[in-house]
Design goal:
By secondary structure, this protein is an all-alpha fold. About 60% of the residues lie in helices and about 0% in strands. It has 11 helices and no strands. The longest helix is centred in the C-terminal third of the chain and has 24 residues. The protein starts with 18 loop residues before the first helix and ends in a 9-residue tail after the last helix.
């Protein structure tokens, strides 16, 4: 990693000339965006494993002392990429329709998140490949990742703070990890392969949750074949239901 190639401070000539803003209050969101963009650009070009923190700071045009306070570890840089995507989703706090199921709302939330991650996809592909050789970074990032998944549940109107919320967070994390593999290789213009994979995985998770509730005795046997609470009624579609149907294809730890 190029963290010690030159101990003198140098700013990447291609980086935005905003170091003064970073030091004087350019804002945490702006700092995340610049660091995430620089990190993923460098990872796409030379591999995540060979991308050092000092190189990322230079590429983002952030002085080392400012960078250190917010991004002391490599996992914190990956967390910045997640935060950029999360805040993009949370900024679009449109109320859910009365007939939308929890699965439909989660589908829309997660697709907005993939849309936000799209500019970083080349870099994320390198991260996912190289992170296997950085178990400590992956372990440290898992805490940030769990927090992101909890907020995606909240954005979909699913309470992640109630009893059993940790299982919901873990379940959505597993969905994200599987769909991420598809997203990274999805060359379709409308992310139709990603949409199909997400729809399939959310349906699978819904069936698993229903079976778990029945085994725990929380759902009476007479309701064992009914849709889970909050599921969409037959004949009613969410805004993206038609897109999911057209995108569905057979056979279809995340770093995002």
């Amino acid at each position: 990693m190029d963290d010690t190639a030159d101990t003198r401070w140098k700013t990447d000539p291609e980086a935005p000339d905003t170091a003064g803003n970073a030091a004087g209050g350019g804002g945490a969101d702006e700092l995340d965006q610049r660091v995430a963009a620089a990190a993923m650009r460098l990872a796409a070009g030379q591999g995540w494993r060979d991308t050092g923190l000092l190189a990322i700071a230079r590429g983002a045009g952030v002085p080392p002392d400012v960078f250190y306070r917010r991004f002391p570890d490599r996992s914190d840089v990956l967390a910045a990429v997640s935060r950029v995507a999360d805040t993009a989703v949370l900024a679009d706090d449109a109320p859910a329709g009365p007939d939308e199921s929890a699965r439909d709302r989660l589908f829309d939330v997660m697709m907005r998140r993939y849309d936000a991650l799209l500019p970083y996809r080349d870099g994320l592909r390198s991260v996912v490949r190289d992170l296997r050789r950085e178990p400590l970074t992956a372990l440290a990032f898992s805490r940030h990742f769990g927090r992101s998944m909890a907020w995606m549940l909240r954005a979909a109107g699913v309470e992640a703070d109630r009893t059993g919320g940790a299982l919901l967070v873990a379940g959505l994390g597993a969905v994200q990890a599987r769909v991420m593999r598809v997203f990274l290789e999805d060359d379709s213009a409308d992310l139709s392969r990603t949409m199909a994979a997400l729809d399939s995985e959310l349906r699978r998770a819904e069936r698993w949750a229903g079976a778990l509730r029945r085994r725990s005795g929380r759902v009476p046997p007479s309701e064992s074949h009914t849709a889970p609470q909050g599921a969409q009624e037959p004949g009613k579609e969410s805004a993206r239901e038609s897109a999911r149907e057209s995108a569905r294809e057979p056979g279809s730890a995340s770093a995002g």
